[in-house]
Amino acid sequence: MTETAALPPQTVLVFDFGAQYGQLIARRVRDLHVYSEIVPCDVTADEVRAMHPAAIILSGGPASVYADDAPSVDAGIFELGIPVLGFCYGQQIMAVTLGGAVGHTEKGEYGPAPLMRLDGVCGEEAGAEAEAVVPRSELLGDTPCSQTVWMSHRDAVSEVPEGFVVTSRTDVCPVASMECPERRLYATQFHPEVRHTPYGNDMLKNFLFDICGLEQSWTMDSIIEDSVAAIREQVGTDRVILGLSGGVDSSVVAALCAEAIGKQLTCVFVNHGLLRKNEPEEVEEVFTNQFDVDFVHVHAEDRYAELLAGVTEPEKKRRIIGEQFWKEFFAVAEELADDGRPVKFLAQGTIYPDIIESGARKTGGKASTIKSHHNLIPFPDGVHFELIEPLDHFFKDEVRALGTALGLPDHIVHRQPFPGPGLAIRIIGEVTPEKLEILKNADAIVREELDAYNESLFEQTGVRGGELPRDEAGGPEVERPVWQYFAVLPDVRSVGVMGDERTYQRPIILRAVESSDAMTADWAKLPYEVLARVSSRIVAEVQGVNRVAYDITSKPPATIEWE
Ligand code: XMP
């Protein structure tokens, strides 16, 4: 619990009961400019009191409240006088903890469901049941008497705790929401945090601003101010090296650290030979000419090639690359320390989705390991740093907004994500110089063509690839810019014919996705002309490739990268 020691005032704590997208709740709250953080669900009432949160939200979760290993909640949190809002499992756990009951509904309820409010304000629509409940639900506020909500449950509250009233129901679920305004306890069986509950955001606003009386104080300026102050406090007069990739995350950390500690910072760019065409040169140019920071370019290409020879298993590749990153940084730190001033800290651009997918290192939550992000692998023997990770609670689009607020140029802020292990996880099977050459050349064409496509859309719509898709931003449905795009080299060959000759060469897979935070993604519905141009250029210009395929899978069930 150390990281929650100094929470900003007016923090909303989200208790994580293992919800698949639990972090979305914190995200929605922060979108409303209120700071929010996730804590494990077994945090005690005493620990919560010490954190002084302004409100608590209990997330959903996959368990049944009566299962043997079902997560519970310290009943004391309901006695702290802090407003509490529960969603789904959060409603059920609130009910059973406070003396109500949960039962199996006859059939499960998954997806959109019509909701009927039962509070008095809905008059006749609420029917006779309205007489038994509150005149107006504080949580449901001005939202319509009949509306659609998103459900995903089998169990449901069958009996509300004493002092609670039922404020809405669906055909299947008799207690779709309940509240006890005197104690400021509220809960819904449905999910207000997902976009498919159209009035969910209004309910969240009712809770945060009307019920809890919070202010919209979590803004980019305050984030920068707080982060800079926190870095200064953590570092004191010590020295820091920063693992710089040239991507938006590490560049934003560089800008924050430069502002906080100036020349105590050295940016280290490890070139592992797995970067995109021309990338090392571009990063060096930006960080030597456009930034006033100390910059070290480490040429580690040969060391990585040797380490990766013969390795085919994705997690093994990730581990080797991640461990070697630490060793390279440590070697630079030791060299710098020759002047008698040791380097105590390593700063890096870890963001929240990295942590979630690597198995919830800090959140203490229950998410499983999908893939080990290079920056979250344990230090090997002999390497030690204290870490500075100012972005470890932020989503990609929040980091971009931060970059803009810090004055970083657009071409850095809107750079697409590029994984730390680089092209090694886009070459399926062993990484060899020949495959690297093919992939770099094919990828350069993909980027050239899709950069141009994105740019043409930007001119028409004013929306960039790194920004929210139009429908999420509330605008009309238009052709959307692509969020991330690249080439993948699978470990197969196929037969083709070129200039009357049989070929037996490699295919390239085009991956292009729409997303806003990399947690979920959909394949981009690219126009046929764009697909055709990418395909014919790759086959004509890249030696060793005779076929191009397009990956049309969303995340989930796939991930964005192939390994
Ligand atoms: P997946 O493949 O998990 O990727 O859907 C989600 C986003 O994260 C990027 N990615 C990484 N970024 N280090 C990084 O810095 C990594 O090890 C890593 N693995 C995936 C990926 O490009 C996508 O944007």
Architecture overview:
This protein has 563 residues and is of the alpha/beta class. The protein has three domains: 12-211, 3-Layer(aba) Sandwich (Rossmann fold); 220-413, HUPs (Rossmann fold, 3-Layer(aba) Sandwich), CATH 3.40.50; 426-550, GMP Synthetase, Chain A, domain 3 (2-Layer Sandwich). Helix content is 32%, strand content 21%. It is built from 16 helices and 19 strands. It has helices at 23-31, 45-51, 89-97, 123-126, 200-211, 220-235, 248-261, 279-290, 301-308, 314-336, 352-357, 396-405, 410-413, 433-461, 470-473, 528-541; strands at residues 12-16, 36-40, 55-58, 84-87, 101-117, 146-159, 165-169, 177-180, 185-188, 239-243, 265-271, 294-299, 343-347, 386-388, 484-488, 494-498, 501-514, 522-523, 545-550. The strands form three sheets. It has a nine-stranded mixed beta sheet with strand order 2-1-3-4-9-8-7-5-6, with helices on both faces. A hairpin with a 4-residue loop joins strand 8 (177-180) and strand 9 (185-188). Helix 14 packs antiparallel against helix 16 (528-541). The longest helix is centred in the last third of the chain and has 29 residues, at 433-461. It starts with 11 loop residues before the first strand and ends in a 13-residue tail after the last strand. The relative contact order is 0.08. The model is unreliable at 1-5 and 468-477 (pLDDT under 50). Residues 357, 371, 373-374, 417, 419-421, 484, 518, 555, 559-561 line the site of xanthosine-5'-monophosphate.
Could you name the key traits of this structure?
Rossmann fold, 16 helices, five-stranded parallel beta sheet, 3 domains, alpha/beta, nine-stranded mixed beta sheet, 21% strand, binds xanthosine-5'-monophosphate, disordered N terminus, GMP Synthetase, Chain A, domain 3, 563 residues
